[in-house]
Amino acid sequence: MRRTGTTRRGALTVTGAIALGAALAGCGDGDSGEGRKGSAPAGAREAAAKAESALRLRAARTSGTLLAQYEQVVTAHPATAAGLVPLRDAVRAHTEALSPGADGTARPGAGETAGTTAMRGADRAPAVSGSPAPSGSPAADARTAVKELAAAERRTADTHTAMLLTAPPELARLLASIAAAGAAHAYLLTELAKETSS
């Protein structure tokens, strides 16, 4: 592989870590609205919590579908693992951060992690604009498979961005961070595809 490949592989790792840190930092402001919550009627608070939990589940399922696609490509094309694993791990962290239970609004079933809940429910997720169900298997050649991942990252970022319109402030910050990370992932995957052998 050319020298630029090593440089970009390093960029994948560093950028994935930075994006993950930025996304998870969005979870740190959970106390900012506590004073306002105390003045809201109990029924309104419960309805808002249910709506946020449902939105989190939709967002987590969207990320879970993307995570499954990463797993498929890494399994089918092991040579891509060095470039894809850091991004896959970031998507896994996004899925868990978005899952109901990550902020205390709801809990996964006994014996499950939040990420498992999202993955298990991905095929039953309500239709989300721009986020079609993943294909049964990745492309036969690695370059095309990586290009397909880039497109999936863009669709997922667009879906999370659209969810900002109805998200409460804390969740909106998290979605915005994850959407930005997804856009960066899409760029890096596009560059990686150029260096990947078919």
Tally the helices: 7
What's the N-to-C terminus distance?
13 Å
The mean pLDDT is: 76
Strand content: under 5%
Name the shape in a single word.
elongated
Number of strands: 0
Helix residue percentage: over 70%
Order of SSEs: HHHHHHH
- Assign the structural class, choosing from mainly alpha, mainly beta, alpha/beta, alpha+beta, or little secondary structure: mainly alpha
Q: Compute the gyration radius: what is it?
A: 18 Å
**Biggest β-sheet strands, sense, barrel:** none
- Uncertain runs are 1-6, 24-37, 105-133
Walk me through the structure:
With 198 residues, the chain is mainly alpha-helical. The protein is built from seven helices and no strands. It has helices at residues 3-25, 34-39, 42-76, 81-98, 114-121, 142-163, 169-195. α3 (42-76) packs antiparallel against α4.
Keywords:
disordered N terminus; 198 residues; single chain; 7 helices; mainly alpha
Topology:
Layout: H1 3-25, H2 34-39, H3 42-76, H4 81-98, H5 114-121, H6 142-163, H7 169-195
Give a concise summary.
This protein is mainly alpha-helical and 198 residues long.
